[in-house]
Amino acid sequence: MKIMIQTETAVETAAVTPSPAKRDFAQLWQNYGTFGVLVILLVLSSALSPQYFLTTDNLLQVLLQSSVMVLLACGVFFTILIAGIDLSVGSMLALTGMVTAQLMMAGCPFWLAILLGGVLLGGLLGAVNGLLVNLTGLHPFIITLGTVAIYRGVTLIISNAASVFGFDPRFGDIIAGRVVGVPVPVLIALVVAGVLWFVTKYTRLGRNIYALGGNAQAAYFSGINVKLHTLVVFVISGICAGIAGVITVARTSAAEPNAGVGFETFAIASAIIGGTSFFGGRGKIPGVVVGGLIIGVINNILNLLNVQSYYQQIVMGALIIAAVTVDKFFGKKNAR
Fold first, then answer.
1. 213 and which of 82, 93, 203, 327 could share a cystine (Cβ 3.0–4.6 Å)?
2. SS (H, E, C) the chain
3. ∠ CA 174-190-255 to the nearest 5 degrees?
4. Which residues contact residue 129 at a Cβ distance below 8 angstroms, ignoring those fewer than 6 apart?
5. Given this model, what pLDDT does residue 33 score?
């Protein structure tokens, strides 16, 4: 009987343990997969549009277009890291951008409008999401599915569904300008990503967030304040969306009530393609940045090839499914 039990246990262990080849591929994918996809896309894009894609102006345009996606993806990254999600980033982008513009129209200095309407309001909207998740106990998907409509509705109400423009031109000149030829939004996105990378890698807050995503119950019993860290995660997401809203208004010289529609799809795709596990507990900010660049390159080459924007949505959806599938079969469990 003892021999039979040991044999059955050995068979079960062999069935669960992945092959060495599978483990090697999983490790290779986690370390270099996202960057490899970006390189392949750059090569393909260069071949499909040799006259335009590799020009300096176009590459800078890719970086500029990717900056907003990177900011939103960095915020969404933290919510996915705790096995949650934030579907409201597009609506928060629109609302913070609209309030920032209205504050400037009311005579508020542009730097104060950025601080109040962008950063502070973004953090408050994120805090509302986090508080609702904590108070109701509902999954963040449900909460942010509701707030995405609420925030968009508030944006339409305070703007009367009309664009706001004609504010201080220095706002656009500074936020949407260039420093040594590099667009300021790109620099802002890199600074924000750098700060968040430091938080995840070198601070107790970052380690606790990873632990929370890996196993919320174990994190709770180890003394981690689950509700506080959940709140912080959504505040970070809101601040990132607020900064993205400010940049969007500066780039277009107008605040649009429908700005950011569908951006949550691009943000989630950037994070997932960047190696963030949809099941929580695993992912890195550099991968998210590369994921945002991948989205930017795809959108850019499709535009250069005169492909309708509708097809971009199909591509994003397919990429999300593919990335989650790869994560499921070659992710954390199989990589052990």
1. 82
2. CHHHHHHHHHHHHHHHCCCHHHHHHHHHHHHHHHHHHHHHHHHHHHHHCCCCCCCHHHHHHHHHHHHHHHHHHHHHHHHHHCCCCCCCHHHHHHHHHHHHHHHHHCCCCHHHHHHHHHHHHHHHHHHHHHHHHHHHCCCHHHHHHHHHHHHHHHHHHHHCCCCEECCCHHHHHHHCCEECCEEHHHHHHHHHHHHHHHHHHHCHHHHHHHHHHHCHHHHHHCCCCHHHHHHHHHHHHHHHHHHHHHHHHHHHCEECCCCCCCHHHHHHHHHHHCCCCCCCCCCCHHHHHHHHHHHHHHHHHHHHCCCCHHHHHHHHHHHHHHHHHHHHHHCHHHHC
3. 45
4. 86, 88, 140, 143, 144, 147, 234, 237, 238
5. 72
The partner residues of 255 in beta bridges, in order of sequence, read: 164
Can you tell me the distance from the alpha carbon of 8 to that of 13, in angstroms, rounded to the nearest whole number? Answer: 9
Mean pLDDT of 151-178: 93
Task: Give the pair of three-digit tokens for residue 216.
Answer: 């919320």
Is the distance from CB of 244 to CB of 265 less than 8 angstroms? no
To which residue do tokens 């912080």 refer? 232
- The pLDDT-based confidence of 248 (bands split at 50, 70, 90) is very high
Tokens read off for 125? 């909207």
Both structure tokens of 202: 């070198």
Residue 315 banded pLDDT, cuts 50, 70, 90:
confident
Query: In the predicted model, is pLDDT for residue 335 greater than 60?
Result: no
Task: Specify the pTM.
Answer: 0.88
pLDDT reported for residue 31: 66
Rounded average pLDDT over 205-216: 92
For the chain, give the number of residues. Answer: 336
